[in-house]
Amino acid sequence: MDVHTPLDVIGAPLGNLATFELRGRTLERVPIESDDLAKRVLRLQAARRTFGIRFEDGKRLRDGDVVYADEVCVVAVEVLPDDVLVCAPQSIPAALELAHAIGNRHLEMQVHGDRLVLRYERLVEDLVREQGVPYTREHRRLSTPFRHAHAPHGHE
Fold it and tell me: What would the CATH number be for the domain defined by 82-140?
């Protein structure tokens, strides 16, 4: 692509595939990482064009968001699955103990119902196993990215 070619800049999705009517148009899915969901500025490369995303007011992409549509083609984002550990603590104390250990290591974690979801790393898996918490390793499409909690604190 020529660096002087202007980008199509999107300020908001046109809709989501859950309700967007294709009406016989070709669907192209542009893969993104779940971490990209947190970005308000993003560059996407589709087959025939490049898109710039520039969201204001806290808007962010979701899986299936339509970023372009014409009479022939619809372009939507597809969030790639993350490699995660899905932990199923058997009690509240077990969940608190694991969450405390994860927090002490400044690792990212999500709570999905009664499960704790952690980004896969071998050392994290070792920690979960040492804690005796049942878990599975999965490839899961996340609707929100992992985020670090940024709070001032100290260690004594």
Answer: 3.30.70.790
pTM for the model:
0.75
Give residue-wise pLDDT tens across range 78-92: 999 999 999 999 999
CA distance 65 to 10: 11
Q: How far is the CA of 56 from the CAs of 30, 40, 41, 107, in angstroms?
A: 21, 7, 9, 29
Which residue ranges make up each domain of the chain? 8-79, 82-140
φ, ψ (nearest 5 deg) of residue 127 = -60, -45
3-state secondary structure 80-116: CCEEEEEECCCCHHHHHHHHHHHHHCCCCEEEECCEE
